[in-house]
Amino acid sequence: MNIGIVGLGLIGGCLGLDLRAQGYKVFGVSRRESTCQQAIALGVADQASVDLAILAATEVIFLCTPLAAILPTVEQLIPYLSPNTVLTDVGSVKAPVVEAIAPLWSNFVGGHPMAGKTDSGIEAAQLNLFALKPYVLTPIATTPAAAVEVVEKIARSLQATIYHCRPEEHDRAVSWISHLPVMVSAALIAACMSETNPDVLVLAQQLASSGFRDTSRVGGGNPELGMMMARYNRQELLRSLQHYQHHLEVLIDLVEQENWIALKQQLESNHLVRSYFIDE
Amino acid sequence: MNIGIVGLGLIGGCLGLDLRAQGYKVFGVSRRESTCQQAIALGVADQASVDLAILAATEVIFLCTPLAAILPTVEQLIPYLSPNTVLTDVGSVKAPVVEAIAPLWSNFVGGHPMAGKTDSGIEAAQLNLFALKPYVLTPIATTPAAAVEVVEKIARSLQATIYHCRPEEHDRAVSWISHLPVMVSAALIAACMSETNPDVLVLAQQLASSGFRDTSRVGGGNPELGMMMARYNRQELLRSLQHYQHHLEVLIDLVEQENWIALKQQLESNHLVRSYFIDE
Fold it and tell me: Are B217 and B182 in contact (CB under 8 A)?
């Protein structure tokens, strides 16, 4: 099977490596000629071009561009597609993507492989990034079952764990566990810098260790990605932020009232509840 | 030199292992006889007892109990001490400890080795826990320079990086980088559990990965320790929480106003600023 990948960054690059390793023939498209050459050199694609016409012979195309580029990419791509070509994307927000693309291309399946790493770009591409990681598919009522099957089969071949849900459910769920943490963590970094005593600020910087490192990681991560998550998942993010503010106020009240028993109970509950989200 | 350790948990246990490895003779005290036996078996102490009288022959004593037990421990310990015995503690909050102990024992040096691990208790004790980690000493105007030198020499022998500051400076600095993150992270866990759609809650739990894991780690950590930090560093924690609330509101306003340029700028600033705190 011939598979196309538009957007040869970290995710597109990792997909290409894995798919070629399974015997798929991969056609890559990047805006930059130098990235196309890198894709060939790194083994991410069999053929690569800045021209979408290279994808005319593909049966499935993965849209791996930033969120804002998905719609314009599909609009430019349509002239080259046969009606059976299946399109799927890897965007981290699903409802706006599905709403925009489904009316233009019925064989479209929204997707979100939930894997990543700190480094970005095709240079950071590696095999097996998606193995044992969630891969969410968000078909809607009008999505042909055959198109879903095709994408799911490929996603399974990456050793990913497949989940199906509605686009809106996906966006609400990732708001809690992915987008809210970015904002919570970003506010922590900004707050620490507001210390006005320079001796204390320097001391805080010297003493910061694993607790600060972990809690501040996603808030100090890729700024473009953080902004795009907020932009495309704005309503859900604002909703989860409101809930967050409430729960923060509850904790602050416990400290103000010196209600140490209730504070400890809340922290005990957290310890248990976190294990529902994370195995470690 | 004979060194005493009161409180044979993780920190006391690690101290004992390191100090014995350097040739110090270590006398341990625990409330429980079984822990005393473990301390001998694990090589944490040369001698161990539930009776503070065992410490009569020591020159330096590390107080490694929970914060609340430091003052009563010192009160019980004083009858056994010679005037030259140096006391030091390892508590994570310094001003209340120094204020309570300094009037009782002039040869007291507040200290805070900033090392830890997820597991607690003497079973988790290991060599070199303090190596390359900050070790803060908080002498005050009345602390004899000779007492500070003795503690500092021992702390250096653990390969720790020594910092000196006032107790209040320590407490404000650790509020930013250690205690505030606990509350920020705790509110995240509590907020996620407030999702009322059970399908979305289960999906969020299934999809949670490294971002949620890291941001929620300290908020799902040791409940007793989290509560004690808040209790003993209450004023500084409340102050940093107020700043945090303000910076969170600023971010929320940017999302509400769809000011994506300013949001991206804030995230870019965070990315840079975080590198002042954390090397990675």
Answer: no
Structure tokens, B51 = 């009776």
The reply to whether CATH 1.10.3660.10 applies to domain A169-277 is: yes
Q: Interface pTM (ipTM) of the complex?
A: 0.94
Q: Residue A232 in contact with residue B196, Cβ under 8 Å?
A: no
Predicted confidence at residue A117, as pLDDT, reads 78
Predicted local confidence at residue B259, as pLDDT? 98
- Residues A137-164: pLDDT tens digits? 999 999 999 999 999 999 999 999 999 9
**Residue spans per domain, chain B:** 2-165, 169-277
> Quick one: closest CA in B to A268, which residue?
B223
pLDDT digits (tens, 9 = 90+) for A223-262: 999 999 999 999 999 999 999 999 999 999 999 999 999 9
Query: The sheet that has A111-113: what strands, in order across it?
Result: A111-113, A134-137, A161-164
Pairwise CB contact (< 8 Å): B215 & A218: yes
Minimum-distance CB partner of A271 among B177, B220, B240: B220
Q: Contact at 8 Å (CB) between A250 and B253?
A: no
User: Is there a contact between A8 and A64 (Cβ–Cβ < 8 Å)?
Assistant: yes
State pTM to two decimals: 0.93
8 A C-beta contact, residue A111 and residue A141: no
- Rounded Cα distance between A259 and A25, Å, is 63
How close does chain A come to B108, measured CA to CA in Å?
A: 22
The yes or no reply on domain A2-165 and CATH 3.40.50.970 is no
CA A256 to chain centroid, in Å, comes to 38
The length of chain A in residues reads: 280
Name the residue among B178, B213, B258 with its Cβ closest to that of A212.
B178
Can you tell me which residue has the tokens 């009345």? B142
